[in-house]
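Progress against Task 2.4 (sequence-to-structure conversion) is shown through the following example record, which the project officer requested during the mid-term review.
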Amino acid sequence: MLLKDIEQIFLKELSDVMPLEEIKTAFAWLMEDYCGLARFALVMDPGYTVDKPTETLFFNALNQLKEGEPIQYVLGYASFLGDVYDLNRATLIPRPETEELVEWAALFLNELGAAESMQHPPLHILDVGTGSGCIATQLAKKFPESVVKAIDYSPEALQMARVNADKLEVHVDFLQEDVLGEHWKHQTKYHLIVSNPPYVLESEAESMATRVKEYEPYAALFVSDEDPLVFYRAIALFAKQHLYPGGGLYFEINALKEAPLLYLLKEMGFTGIESRADFRGKARFIRAQIP
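Structure tokens generated for the chain above:
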């Protein structure tokens, strides 16, 4: 079957499921994965044909996409800061906003490492709610001499995070922990604690796309409207006890809760509190330090 004919079927049958550009992008990713073709290959070779097994792969993917399944889960991987991360249904799909969080935290670590006052080498880093391991592994990649730990409540997510760390050939100590539990098992001091915790309000779920709210892990996305800062509070309390003086706490946040979180951190005695917008101009990150 001609690949361009399969593309036309995708454009027609997915028109009510996702925007046109997303359909084109999804099909391009499938072309690359199934055929090894670049995005504009059909312009150069409109007569390209696929064999029956490959045709079946495309139409199986089409059926998954029609049900609302994200293309990243269809393929089983996603890109993050130029690296490919394997995914399963226990892991969130890495977002470009989180790439900005990693870069901001890395800038802090570079400044900390260069400071003459640093007295506790190597750098100790903790990623809370690691999911696919994208934050922890990228920081381990950027700071290969550092000691990186990452925790998550989900054993399935941790299994995938370990796979990704092995692929990138970085060392991260992955631990199963409940952030809201009374006692975290490790008592290490850290220079950086970073987290992208659940922050989407349950009341926001109705307005979200099916492929997000029905396919990505609910517990990793959503938080109760009654206590939307529950994870931030728990992590900040841990940070108060386990950050070195001058150590940094970096969060990805819900823009709707920027002001309450800034107030919470100030009341808890953090200093150097700062919020930052993402590339879309929306409040998305907050940092704070231990005096």
